[in-house]
Amino acid sequence: MYINNLLLLPALVNRALDAARAVKQGIHTVICWIEEATLTRLLDLPHFAVTGYSVETTNIQDILHLFCELTLEAGICPHCQTVSTTIKQYKERCVRDCDVWGKRTFLHFRIRRFECLDCGLRFTEELSSIGWRRRQTYRFEQEIYRHCLRCSRKETAESYHLSQSTVQGIFKKWAKQHCSQLSWKRVRVLGMDEIALKKRHKQYVLVLSDLERRCVLAVLPTREQKAIVTWLKTRSSGERKAIRVVSMDMWRPYRAFVKKELPQAKIVADRFHVMKNLNEQLTKARRQIQRQADEATANALKGSRWLLVRNRDTLTEEQEQQLMTAITADADLRQAYLLKEEFRLIFERIHDRERARRFLMAWVFKVQQTNNKYLLAFVKTLKNWWAEILNYFDERITNGFVEGMNRAIRSIIWRACGFRNFENFRLQILAEYGLP
């Protein structure tokens, strides 16, 4: 029997979080009583009407079969766009839909084949909720796609009782659709960095990112200039000219490529790679001192590797004490460490390009007075990248987002236990970290 809907007062949101509170205070929302069309409304698929159901019990997961009828009375001819009501054939179809109350759900219905009276074409009707010759509804495919963004293909297949090939096909379909929506029109600051897929085999891929919108734009199979140039040619002239800043690590082929292909762009050497280079030289100096030191000094320097290269501001009191013991044991190491910290503070505290230039020149002069071959090697690198390093102080742009993205990409590789196909790898990255 049909009863009118009951309208109650609006509910507080937090009542839904506590079942006991909901029981005591009541459900303050619109209550729709059961009627013949209830299952059809709950199914929420356009042009489908539920006429019956069946529950199949299995050892793994119960299966819900919903038997439906299509409510459209006519079809549109794909050739002449004429409405046709002449049905020539019925064909039984079964598609997978999103689970209902923990049960695998399948929709059973009869698809119709029409005949156009104007042009004589026979055609099968198209449904807005199910793709052509697909065995799943659109919303179920989107659910599978979202699950693949946080789990491996194998885990997704096992969770939904599908084959891995089916899951892979669904993911590829929606990932390609997502990637087609990526836009380069507003890219002003471009980040370039590579990630090693197989370090022993020297296999690298290049990741290009929009540092302002904080998203991945493209993943190239190699870091060679030829691959970058080939890809850049697919961009329009306006898109290339819109790039005003390129942030990169200190690798000469990248710099040569940008100067040649993007002459209007300002190159910024990533400050974290600059500090990494200096820390490597400090580590080499510490190793030489430790090899030549007496037993007491060697014991004092033992375990000081990471203390010397870390930012002093992040050390605990115990680590600070260990650091003081290490740098007090050798005067040359103490001097090198203090110069490293002074260099770091220039990047931390100075926000003006001209002031930074003067401080860096003074720092270079101090290093030259030490005659430390490792620090002098870093000074040589500093001079080779002088303009690009000073460009950092104009807008303080770094590759920090790209470095964080490298770690996220590494987690994707671990989650999948590696990728044998580069295209699958590229689609996974763009689907997870491309533009929303």
Plain-language structure description:
This protein has 436 residues and is of the alpha/beta class. The protein folds into three domains: 123 residues, no CATH class; 118 residues, Ribonuclease H-like superfamily/Ribonuclease H (Nucleotidyltransferase, domain 5, 2-Layer Sandwich); 125 residues. 47% of the residues lie in helices and 19% in strands. Strands 1, 2, 5, 6 and 7 form a five-stranded mixed β-sheet that branches. The protein has a five-stranded mixed β-sheet with strand order 10-9-8-11-12, with helices on both faces. A two-stranded antiparallel ribbon has the order 3-4. Strand 5 and strand 6 form a beta hairpin. Helix 4 packs across helix 5, helix 6 runs parallel beside helix 8 and helix 18 packs across helix 19. The longest helix has 22 residues. The model has no long low-confidence stretch (mean pLDDT 87).
Number of strands: 12
Helix % is 40-55%
Largest sheet: 5 strands, mixed
Number of helices, where a helix is a run of at least 4 consecutive DSSP H or I residues: 19
Question: What percent of residues are in strands?
Answer: 15-25%
Tally of individual domains: 3
Unreliable parts: none
Mean pLDDT value: 87
Distance between the termini: 47 Å
Class from helix and strand fractions? alpha/beta
Estimate the global geometry from the Cα principal axes.
Answer: elongated
Radius of gyration: 32 Å
